[in-house]
Design goal:
With 116 residues, this protein is mainly beta. It contains no helices and 11 strands. Strand 4 and strand 5 form a beta hairpin. The protein is globular and about 40 Å long.
């Protein structure tokens, strides 16, 4: 059974940091590109960062560059999203995604709320 389980979300003050984790099971993690997406209330889901099988990362939104970074540990079947200097506009549900040609899996999401 394929599972992607995100954790690490919560309430944080502006300027704070959070580290999200996504643990995968039920498929060959190392063969998949992993991504983080987020969806804010009333907005479409947007791509945050892609981590290739080799661990190369590409951050897609200018608003997150320099603040967000991602990595993966294939030995632990885990992908991480480190978020620093958080802003209220970063409030969203953050989702983990695994993708290989013809296959795609999603996690259930973890809520991140940035508020004072």
């Amino acid at each position: 059974q394929v599972q992607l389980v995100e954790s690490g979300g919560g309430l944080v003050q502006p300027g704070g940091s959070l580290r999200l984790s996504c643990v995968a099971s039920g498929f060959t993690f190392s063969a998949y590109a992993m991504s983080w997406y987020r969806q804010a209330p009333g907005k479409e889901r947007e791509l945050v960062v892609i981590v290739t099988r080799a661990g190369v990362t590409t951050t897609y939104a200018d608003s997150m560059k320099g603040r967000f970074s991602a990595s993966r540990d294939n030995a632990k079947n885990t992908v991480y999203l480190q978020m620093n200097s958080l802003k209220p506009e970063d409030t969203a549900v953050y989702y983990c995604n695994a993708r290989l040609i013809g296959r795609e899996f999603w996690g259930q999401g973890t809520q991140v709320t940035v508020s004072s």
